[in-house]
Amino acid sequence: MRMKSLLLLLCLIGPLAWGDGRSAAQLSEILSRSQLMCASAMVYFNPAERMPDPRALNATYEHLNAMETYVVQLGQPESLLQPLRAMKEVFDALERLPRTERKRYPELVQQLLGHQQQLQGATSTAYANAGPDLAAADIWAQSQALATLLLDYQVRLYPLSHKGGLTLTPDQAKELNQMIEQRFEALLARHTEHAEVLSKARTSYLFVRPQLQQMTKGGSAGSGGPEFYLNRASIDLDELAVAVLPPSP
After folding, report:
1. Secondary structure (3-state) at 45
2. How far apart are CA 221 and CA 189, in angstroms?
């Protein structure tokens, strides 16, 4: 639970110090992408699906490749490299597994989530120390928050044997949703020149919010899924955060 609480704190307040914005950008994307990757993997490697949507597999690849690129750009620190390699090994094992053995998916996905928590912890520490530029910090925090909600939703849906520490409490989910709403209002007021991107991300969030809240309260998933909307919104916000960074000296 400590790991989930640490990530929630970052999503709620964001970092406060100024530092190397480019390094912070890469670390922030790892924080978001590691969650998005696991969420997409759970959609594709669902033992109940005989013919899963290949778009979920493509998204999983995209997030993994992005994280590998960022870790290289950050100098391949062992604290990040080790859990990321472990995630890739589990992902490779899932891909090699025939669909006829899909009953083993949950066991491997459980391992994937464990390695993701390790990566999340190491990245959260590095991200807090990096101290991103204040102009981008709230946008990164919003991207991370949407990724957190999506992973929480998919974990609740997926047939895992152990979900302790992997999901938000109802109070945490309520607080995070309230902060997301408030942050969107503040971002739209502060970055009027980027209203189109921010409004699109906000619309996507509002569209799936009832479904997310229903799952948090123990309800059913309903029709469709929020993975496409929150995946795209989180990535768009990360791209916007980089766009508002001041030029490198």
Report:
1. coil
2. 33
